[in-house]
Amino acid sequence: MAxxxxxxxxxxxxxxxxxxxAVVKVDAHSKEMVEGLNKTGIxxxxxxxxxxxNSSEEVENVMKAAxxxxxxxxxxxxxxTFSPAKMWIKGLQNLKKPxxxxxxxxxxxxxxxxxxxxxxxxxxxxHGDIEFGHICTRMRVSRKVICGYWKNEDVQKKIAVWAxxxxxxxxxxxxxxxxxxxxxxxxxxxxxxxxxxxxxxGYHVDYYPVSSLMEYFKKVTDAEVDELVxxxxxxxxxxxxxxxxxxxxxxxxxxxxxxxxLRRVLKDNGATAFTTNFDDLGGADINDPNFVGFDQIPGLAxxxxxxxxxxxxxxxxxxxxxxxxxxxxxxxxMPKGCSFLEDYTLNFAGDKSSCLQSxxxxxxxxxxxxxxxxxxxxxxxxxxxKQPTARLVxxxxxxxxxxxxxxxxxxxxxxxSQEVECIEPKPMPHLPVASALWIPQPSFEVGAGAWxxxxxxxxxxxSYDINEEYWEDFAEMVGIEYVKINKDTxxxxxxxxxxxxxxxxxxxxxLK
Length: 512
Prior knowledge:
Layout (H helix, E strand, L loop, with lengths): L6 E7 L6 H21 L5 E8 L2 H12 L4 E8 L9 H6 L4 E5 L13 H6 L2 H14 L5 E4 L5 H20 L3 E5 L13 H8 L2 E5 L1 H10 L2 H14 L1 E2 L6 H24 L4 E3 L23 H9 L3 E3 L4 H13 L7 E10 L6 E5 L15 E7 L6 E7 L5 E10 L4 E11 L12 E5 L3 H10 L5 E5 L4 H11 L2 E5 L5 H21 L1
Parallel strand pairs: 1-2, 1-3, 3-4, 4-5, 6-7, 6-9, 8-13, 9-10, 16-19
Antiparallel strand pairs: 11-12, 11-18, 12-17, 13-14, 15-16, 15-18, 16-17
Helix pairs in contact: 6-12, 6-14, 8-10, 9-10, 10-11
């Protein structure tokens, strides 16, 4: 029960025009529908019936209550009968939680032999939902609209997508991301406006001194390190290569010590995401006998923490760190996994042209094809410490997935997603890092070009288990631009969309 502390509130719209008996029937039907949805096991968050709203005051009260209840991840509204939409205005003005407008009906078919005006007056979703939809559109209320019969499995799966995204958005407003070091090497695409980021998406990003992290590092005991190393031996394939056994175990113990320190500082600061910077690792001279600091970037720790849902971004990339945390929250319980990844090296091979994804060390083992990734130690000649260091080495699963990123365009944030196909790489015996090889959709030439035209980053949050519907819902909930690249993308149409979007956001800003 990954989302057991959350609820989705179901509010049914009606009015007293048709008398008290009608409201009783509306209430009974609503309870049966909510119970039925919960029994399917498809929707991962419990749906809670919050009654029938028959007046402006009742609507406003339930919306305000939702805002103030941390368990409420979102509101589902359904108009059983005709619910005059002016009574929803004050409530919608107050609502701060995600909204799903469910256009459905209690009964599947019209009872042709018995239908009369009493039935017509009671079952007016075709009327009431359109009235409600109009006021949402007029008020520019962001929401998702799902149309279909409530017992239909495809419809229930759409609700489940929205529910998972609502959980991710709820979590985002509680995310604190610690930057151990800052954005590095004058990189533009991974930087941005952290104040606006928090206003719009909810994530709080703080610089955290590496010197303070080192205070935690110094307090880790040898016994704690040895215990964690024993855990590594059970989980991973031990592979001692060119470093030799003595250096291997020394570096593995250093990695374990870094993991313990990171876990404690994140816990003590209430943080669920972090970034590292291989030019800021604590300490000055690694050859000093009194040296205290990381011997290299804490790659193994980053890999293991990601697998447990801690957001991570390399090189100070706080936006991807936060987005990965949300991705992990959304897809809890799904089988194939997710990871932070970086576009690294191109492979031109006709219709199989692809891009190798990796990083210095930090790829999440949730996407590993191997059941037991290899725990290896190799030299890493980048940053201020050119030292051997420990990491998990594996190749990714094959299959289709989706990568996503958020970029700051100055006047707005843009969420970009792209469908990719992960394929089997040729053997790479001399590449001592985890990797994935993928073909951007709809082809390398179009897909890679579209990502560049949209302003995408070289870092991404990647998943096999979700699709672009999740990211589309996420962008709608937090109110940012969304650009999707998939098998249907055409370069000329994408360019036109980007130009049209630019005009829209410039005018929108001017009107405000």
